[in-house]
Amino acid sequence: MSLLGNFARRGGSRDAVRETPLAAALTTLALLVACAREGKPVLSPPSGPVRSSTPASAEAAPALDAGPSAATLPEEAADLSACALPVAAAPKPRSCAPFEARTLAGVESELRHRFKPSSPQNKVVVDFGCYGIDDSDVREIVFETGNGHGGSLELTRWVRAGERFVVRQIRWSEYRDRGMVLRSATVPAAALEPQLRRMAASLMATVHEIPVYVEGMGLGLSGTSSSYDYHSGLTLLDGAGHDVERHYSGYATDSAEELPMELATRSLRAILAKATFEEDPARDADRLFFAQRFLRMEAGAQPFWWVEERFLGMASVLGSRPLLPALMRVAKKPAIGGGTERRKAAAMAAIGAILSLDAAKVAPGEVLRKAEAACRK
Questions:
Q1: How would you class 364 by CB atoms within 10 Å of its CB: exposed for 0-12, middle for 13-18, buried for 19 or more?
Q2: Which residues are CB-contacts of 354 (< 8 A; sequence separation ≥ 6)?
Q3: Share of residues in the chain with pLDDT > 90 (%)
Q4: Would you give the DSSP letter of residue 68?
Q5: pLDDT at residue 37 tops 70
Q6: What does the alpha-carbon distance between residue 371 and residue 83 come to, in Å, rounded to a whole number?
Q7: 53, 186, 197, 295 — which has fewest CB within 10 A?
């Protein structure tokens, strides 16, 4: 059974053929005669020859957008006046969901093909962790991606709405044209549905390299290097509140840590590249979503320095009071090197933006005192 059920695909027919002007004229004449005999109203035919938009050899494919009117998320109740987000009740524990053997074999095969062990005699083992969400009820997907040297970070939220996903993307640029863009699109569930099982299996995969010593054979070393420094994160959530999440921050090297994430997010990248987006203003639902992602980032394992820096920059535009305690912790960290100083300054700027004051013109201690006072109310 598929993850999200079977949905009708929209597109051209494989039987569609290109009509010649003569054929179109004859067809129109036949329709007019038939309508006259049956006493039906006659509609004016379109001007010019009628042409099929789909070649005869093309398969029907789902459209990747439904226009701006469909690209709206339902407004969420967002109380952003307090210095903490409401604590949601933990969902009931759920047993691991098994993957199909064919799905596991396909993911393992690609991982083995692309992963290069440091020594040819070493053994490569691929195993899969516990997939603890309801695979028939994937309600939301969060995809994080960014480039270290390029100064970018994108948070893309996919929310299930009937037979479609509403896609809401927050894009941040740190260097060139510094600032934020918010935009929306819609994607048919049918465009993503066939990819979800492989995506989930890749997300749960772990590649192990087990050293094997063979007498008389050198240890040998191998590896790859890249200057492409990027961040990738993926979260899948079901209707009951269960979620699975994984991140990778580093260089593109086909490493054991990177490869599963690259496989898990490949289909999302391809779909986003084809989707039609339209810019629109920030809403409270965006501020609530950003606060949730920011607090996840700060509460998790030590984030990659530039990923935290991007989040802090975004907080100066989309931040709200629930972020104040975390921002104060960053601002109070001991200064170790230029990177820490930049993040401390970014945290102070975000606090100032949330409190509607110019942090650059107020003493740092005073900014923190005002933040602490705001959180005591």
A1: middle
A2: 315, 319, 320, 321, 323, 324, 327
A3: 63
A4: G
A5: no
A6: 10
A7: 53
